[in-house]
Design brief:
By secondary structure, this protein is an alpha/beta fold. It has 2 domains: 157 residues, Alpha-Beta Complex (Aspartate Aminotransferase, domain 1); 231 residues, 3-Layer(aba) Sandwich (Aspartate Aminotransferase, domain 2). Helices cover 37% and strands 14% of the residues. It is globular and about 60 Å long.
């Protein structure tokens, strides 16, 4: 198992980058991962037409007009919203899961959350309040960094689960000791950054057999390319929570609308705690979210758009000597750095992902995310988020038309 950076025990020297010089110094927040790209953003911006930002998965396409209309006409602005979520919002979410993924919603409890990042970051702290004897968060080896950060903020151990060559978690590698200390297991399918699809039935079985709650982050479920999308709730709600967001599905990242659903005991506990803490999705957002969840046509259009962009940009990179394949899911390309690559002017200690990121910023005026943003095991990759419109992607294609990695490697 890999132990990710986190706090030591009370009185011990902190172990993680950004965790402070020692226990007495207190917690020092690390630099936010994407803020590290500031210098490369300036380099990319020098190109005519400016920088094309494919580093962060922020949707750039417009949300559905019917959702914007609903946002402006909810009539719910005056009163405090329900923390657990309005009946309209929760029923729309359950109907969506039943309609799109065939989930039997009988016995499935559901509650609203403010987007899903705040939930991901908060779960370790809240579960440790409930079970103080446990102190470990299990998460994928290469993953969305908030799984680890949630553990750090809760003063827990973040333990990375090794992965197979296809990026899926190797659950058999989790030691009995780590399983016994685990507060939860995070799974992400389709995965960020690599787009892998987990065996959610196996994950649910592992969690139940070890008494470990499984939290399944499924925010890219609508963008599954290798067959239909799947949710952990297809295998029943006992001991599992599916986490969903409208940010990617409906281009509503700015509204912070999400929900979590599954095991009734877990949902009730988290909902009651969050009610005391004042976590509430605004009323107009809940109404607009219910409208968005009731409409599938805009999602089908967005699916076609993302798939076309993935195919187009994979070819752009391949033409420059950078092999890129279409993922099983998500709207990211997880690109291995060519072995022959050496960025012009790169320092000798620069890892491959940062070297390729620098080269793409200099030659293509495009920002991507270095792979170590998602864990040191990702250092040999970069992630490309296909969120920009076609004309901006074509701008990068023109810039890279005369740039090839093979020539860069010998520069």
């Amino acid at each position: 198992m890999t132990y990710l950076p986190t706090f030591g025990e009370p009185g011990e020297k902190a172990q993680g980058a950004g965790a402070g010089e020692d226990a007495e110094a207190g917690f020092v927040p690390p630099t936010y991962p994407f803020d590290k790209l500031a210098a490369l953003a300036e380099l990319a911006q020098r190109h005519e037409g400016g920088a094309v930002d494919l580093s962060i998965g922020t949707p750039c396409d417009p949300p559905p007009a019917l959702v914007l209309e609903a946002l402006a006409t909810s009539g719910s602005e005056r009163g405090y919203p329900s923390s657990i979520g309005t009946s309209e919002y929760r029923e729309a979410a359950l109907a969506w899961m039943s309609r799109r993924f065939g989930v039997d919603t009988a016995g499935v409890a559901i509650a609203a959350c403010v987007g899903t990042k705040e939930l991901v970051a908060g779960v370790p702290h809240w579960l440790r309040l409930r079970t103080p004897a446990r102190d470990t968060v299990l998460c994928p080896l290469v993953a969305y960094p908030t799984y680890e950060m949630g553990a750090i903020l809760a003063r827990c151990r973040a333990v990375a689960v090794p992965t197979r060559p296809d990026g899926t978690m190797q659950l058999s590698s989790i030691s009995p000791e780590d399983a016994a200390r685990a507060l939860c297991l995070w799974v992400n399918s389709p995965g960020n950054p690599a787009g892998q699809l987990e065996d959610l039935a196996a994950v649910a079985r592992w969690g139940r057999s070890h008494g470990v709650p499984v939290f399944s982050d499924e925010c890219y479920i609508e963008f599954t390319w290798a067959g239909p999308g799947h949710t952990v709730l297809e295998h029943g709600p006992e001991g599992v929570i599916a986490v969903h967001s409208l940010s990617k599905r409906s281009n509503l990242a700015g509204l912070r609308a999400g929900f979590f659903a599954g095991d009734a005991d877990l949902v009730e506990y988290l909902s009651r705690l969050r009610q005391h803490a004042g976590f509430m999705v605004p009323g107009p957002v809940q109404h607009a979210g219910a409208v968005a969840l009731g409409d599938d046509s805009h999602v089908e259009r967005q699916r076609a758009t993302y798939l076309e962009r993935l195919k187009r940009f994979a070819k752009v990179l391949s033409d420059s000597g950078i092999r890129a394949g279409i993922p099983a899911g998500s709207f990211y390309l997880w690109v291995a750095v060519p072995e022959s690559f050496a960025a012009p002017g790169a320092s000798g200690d620069q890892n491959p992902g940062w070297a390729l990121t620098s080269w793409l910023a200099e030659r293509g005026g495009v920002l991507v995310a270095p792979g170590d943003t998602y864990g040191q095991a990702g250092a040999g990759h970069v992630r490309v988020a296909l969120v920009q419109p076609g004309d901006r992607l074509e701008l990068v294609a023109r810039r890279l038309a005369t740039a090839r990695i093979s020539s860069a490697a010998s520069t």
